[in-house]
Design a protein that fits this description.
The chain is 48% helix and 26% strand. It is an alpha+beta fold and 271 residues long. The strands form three sheets. A five-stranded mixed beta sheet has the order 5-7-8-10-9, covered by helices on one side. Strand 7 and strand 8 form a beta hairpin. The protein binds adenosine-5'-diphosphate and magnesium ion (MG). Magnesium ion binds next to helix 5.
Length: 271
């Protein structure tokens, strides 16, 4: 057992106590070992605290990443208007959109800050999430000569439990990467599969693929092979999927393309 003891000098220490049955001078006896584990416990607490700090740091980096793009767009438009080129109505529309995006991200941050269970209360239909993500990314895809091909409505699908905005962020990050992996254009297939109690999203691109060594590094903060990348998208995505008790499986073949399979436990309504 673990307990606290007061030492002769008055200090309170953590101790671990073990007792073993034994014989002493041929009589049954108890052999007791008392070990001071104060230092061990302090080290453990320190480790826990530094792990928490580490997660907070990674999270902060992720959020900064998501907010920087809309901020630089806003800055650009403001500089343009200041230069006297006039503020067309469309500029204000775009600026408002960017502000809304920042608002949304800050909102997500608040969701993250809440205790974990609150996020795991809602039932979510991944078909709807994916449809919204596709609407968001379609314009960017077309600009890059990429078609988003999806088969979403045919099957009956269990809901999953989680946070809609965070899940959207995951699929936005993965599909954006897929678009960026196909500079010559092509198709991205987005499919939903339910098997073995899991709901899976398969995102298949026809991009350049990755060597084995790169696949191992995905999700590492700041790992990027892009000139203007920052290697935070997948880190944030891995973290979110992990918080949803899901997993991400990646298969890639150079010159052929990459498949991201994201799985979540299906929510059983008959439970
Ligand atoms: P970023 O997009 O800013 O580089 P990410 O975390 O989103 O950061 O991705 C990290 C790296 O993973 C990318 O730079 C790229 O090398 C690789 N990657 C991710 N998705 C794909 C993909 N679909 N095809 C090829 N490489 C990919
Ligand atoms: Mg990315």
């Amino acid at each position: 057992m673990e307990l606290q003891c007061v030492r002769f000098d008055g200090a309170v220490i953590d101790v671990e106590m073990k007792s073993l049955p034994t014989l002493y001078k041929n009589e049954p006896a108890v052999h007791t070992i008392v070990r001071d584990i104060t230092e061990r416990n302090q080290t453990r607490e320190l480790l826990k605290a530094s792990e928490k700090l580490n997660i907070a740091g990674q999270l902060a980096a992720g959020i900064a990443h998501e907010i920087r793009n809309p901020l630089s767009a806003l800055k650009g438009f403001l500089q343009f208007i200041r230069s006297g080129s006039g503020g067309k109505k469309e500029y204000f529309e775009i600026m408002l959109d960017e502000i809304n995006r920042i608002e949304l991200i800050v909102g997500e941050l608040l969701i993250l800050a809440k205790p974990e269970q609150s996020m795991l209360e809602r039932q979510i239909d991944l078909r709807i999430v994916l449809k919204q993500v596709i609407v968001l990314l379609e314009a960017q895809a077309i600009l890059n000569g990429v078609q988003l091909v999806s088969e979403l409505s045919s099957i009956s699908l269990s809901p999953i439990v989680g946070d809609e905005n965070q899940l959207k962020q995951v699929f936005i990050n993965i599909i954006k990467n897929a678009i960026e992996a196909m500079p010559a254009g092509g198709d991205i297939r987005i499919e939903l599969v339910q098997q073995d109690g899991m709901v899976e999203v398969h995102i298949t691109d026809q991009g350049g693929g990755m060597p084995e060594a790169s696949i191992h590094r995905l999700g590492e903060p700041f790992y990027t092979t892009k000139e203007s990348g920052n290697g935070l998208g997948l880190m944030v995505s891995f973290k979110i999927v992990e918080q949803h008790n899901g997993s991400i499986n990646i298969h890639s073949q150079q010159g052929v393309g990459t498949v991201f399979r994201v799985s979540f436990p299906a929510f059983d309504q008959n439970r």
